[in-house]
Amino acid sequence: MYSLNSLSVDTLPEALGRTNDGYYNAADNGIDFTKFLEVTTRSIPIPIIAPINTSSTLDERSLSEIISSGLASPRAPRTLESVKSSECLEALLSPSIRSSGGTPHDHPSFEPHPMIADAWEALRRSLVYFRAKPVGTIAAMDPTEESLNYNQVFVRDFVPSALAFLMNGEPEIVKNFLLKTLRLQSIEKRIDCFTLGEGVMPASFKVLHDPVRKTDTMIADFGESAIGRVAPVDSGFWWIILLRAYTKSTGDHSLADMPDCQRGMRLILTLCLSDGFDTFPTLLCADGCCMTDRRMGIYGYPIEIQSLFFMALRSAKSLLKPEGEGRDLLERIDKRLHALSFHMRAYFWLDHTQLNNIYRYKTEEYSHTAVNKFNVIPDSIPDWVFDFMPIKGGYFIGNVSPARMDFRWFAIGNCMAILSSLATPEQASAIMDLFEARWEELVGDMPLKVSYPALEGHEWRIVTGCDPKNTRWSYHNAGSWPVLLWMLTAACIKTGRPQIARRAIEQVEKRLSKDGWPEYYDGKLGRYIGKQARKFQTWSIAGYLVAKMMLEDPSHLGMIGLEEDKKMMKPGLTRSASWTA
Ligand code: GLC
């Protein structure tokens, strides 16, 4: 988490010189923002549900059918009041849920789950307004805890909210959010004497409302106020991914085509496609630069960032205009995608066979004939992996760099690898096989573990720097985060295994709302509300709604799923030279 003094500022060209309703530079004008810390939120207590739009079952349809149907046709929001209580709502909304066979957990009744209405109400309460327009959702609305910076709109946290609104036919807020964050991108960002890259998108922003002067002010945090002072590498990627989701869901290309949006994308891409000393196509990152936003030993080439990078590159490819600087970027994107898919599929992939290969690696191999290219010492393989790895199943490991493989499993990286088709179809089904084989460890009582397993004892002390928030099986250290349900559900739909998502959703429905929508759960099985978890955490709420709506109408997957690009390289995995020696 970040500290309270997240008072960076927005000095947008359009706002320079304004005295009200604008963007300010606190450092320059000395305004004390702490007196405005309450974010403007409004409540519209009308829950809205997804429209009826499913003609055939998910299990009968291919991904391309799923993706091409139902998109680009804005859906009118529908109020719950407009549906008679006597109607079988859930059956009406989602014939696919009932008709797809093979689920071990058929629902006994066809009533909509009461949590849906609760969730919509809570989501609408979290709306943040800027000059009377909704521009995002606040991270958490927990009245019992000190807000720290949970009273801000986080870019990554807004993604499930945005998807929920898009799925419900309410794209305006998403458009407003994309435009506002784009403006924030263009301000100068500094940490002490150092200026950050132009393309960096904020981790979060907040709206300060002055009821006396009747002004709204927006301030952003690019990492200069964050605990640990780390810039969010994922924000720019999520921004591009969301721009594509908006375009896909509304059919409105005019937003992405705007010169400002094209420029925003170019700035983000320039940051991560620039030449340097790299020998790998993966993106080198600092610890804590994504959802795991504090020291957790993910520095280097974290899987979450690589999957999001891949997805953002593919999304940008479909949105960038092939003119001027865009043409050059498109070429660089193609080259990078090619190299990145090869690298990830070959070196980050771990299954039973590959684990056995690594176990038998020779070391000190020199030159291009080396099989153990990164000189990984087999003794560094942790014991738990040998037990964890099923014969059928696999996953992308956490990190690969010279002599370092982080064998931990991470949820976002693996789910996004499926959604972006960074994973080959075979790898995608192996990831789902792993979920089934290791249900207790990865899903447990509350979906879904952010990572597995937890770091403990000496390792925890060294890797986290003795972080008391990240103790074993808590928070980022293998805690269970309900928000991840939407990604799991999307991955299940993409791989044609909705029954897995249904099982996870059923588990969520037993507790999440009763527990007050916590941010995360603790324990090996995720059975305890997290030590310092916020209640009414918005992305826990939105994640549930997105999962429900996607299962009901799988065509929504097209917003966030990309089909396989057959041109990407599929490496044949190499065996250790020791096998043939
Ligand atoms: C925590 C999470 C981060 C999230 C923020 C707001 O810091 O680690 O990923 O964006 O809370 O919910």
UniProtKB/TrEMBL annotation:
<dbReference type="InterPro" id="IPR024746">
    <property type="entry name" value="Glyco_hydro_100"/>
</dbReference>
<comment type="function">
    <text>Invertase that cleaves sucrose into glucose and fructose.</text>
</comment>
<keyword id="KW-0378">Hydrolase</keyword>
<dbReference type="InterPro" id="IPR008928">
    <property type="entry name" value="6-hairpin_glycosidase_sf"/>
</dbReference>
<dbReference type="Pfam" id="PF12899">
    <property type="entry name" value="Glyco_hydro_100"/>
</dbReference>
<comment type="similarity">
    <text>Belongs to the glycosyl hydrolase 100 family.</text>
</comment>
<dbReference type="InterPro" id="IPR012341">
    <property type="entry name" value="6hp_glycosidase-like_sf"/>
</dbReference>
<protein>
    <recommendedName>
        <fullName>Alkaline/neutral invertase</fullName>
        <ecNumber>3.2.1.26</ecNumber>
    </recommendedName>
</protein>
<keyword id="KW-0326">Glycosidase</keyword>
<keyword id="KW-0119">Carbohydrate metabolism</keyword>
